[in-house]
Amino acid sequence: MVTMDKNEGNGAGAGREGPDSGGQPNSGGEDRKNPLETTVSVLSALLIISAVSLLTWQGIRSPAPASFEVDTGEVRGRNGLYYLPLEVSNSGDKSAQNVGLRVRLEGAGVADTDLTIDWLPGRSRRSATSVFSVDPRLYEMSIEFTGYQAP
Q: 44, exposed or middle or buried, with CB in 10 Å at 0-12, 13-18, 19+?
């Protein structure tokens, strides 16, 4: 005896086969979504929304000008010279060229060194070393920025 589904005769649901039906037509009429496909779609949408938001935010805010800070390291002595490592950072958004700085030892007579950092991008750090003929640990030290060029 052959039985017919009530939807088979009028064409409803005909021709659609579900992935788990073994080649048989889908009787429920609903398409099943793969959980991995849904997850990838949601993550892709979030990524696109994040990228558009970031680009919009960067486009409407004005970039901060170059702003400099310097950190000193441990003094090393060698062959009668003293090396003072410096870490110069630009906390602004804009880049700077030919960043000049002067390291001065107060009370040591003429014990100044002038340094130039060729290129200091925004939100970055560069290392430099100031060299003295006297031990900088024995004197009051001052560091000042003397200027820079906007690229």
A: exposed
Task: Write out pLDDT tens, residues 67-115.
Answer: 999 999 999 999 999 999 999 999 999 999 999 999 999 987 778 999 9
CA 93, CA 68: separation in Å to the nearest integer?
Answer: 11
pTM over 0.85: no
Q: How many residues does the chain have?
A: 151
DSSP letters along 34-99, please? Answer: PHHHHHHHHHHHHHHHHHHHHHHHHHHSPPPPP-EEEEE---EEETTEEEEEEEEEE-SSS-EEEE
Q: What is Dmax (Cα atoms) for the chain? A: 114
- Cα distances (Å, whole numbers) of residue 146 to 65, 114, 115, 116: 16, 9, 10, 9
Residues 1-59: tens digit of each pLDDT = 555 555 555 555 445 555 555 555 555 556 788 999 999 999 999 999 999 999 998 88
Contact between 85 and 73 under an 8 Å Cβ cutoff? The reply is yes
**CA angle 147–150–151, rounded 5-degree value:** 135
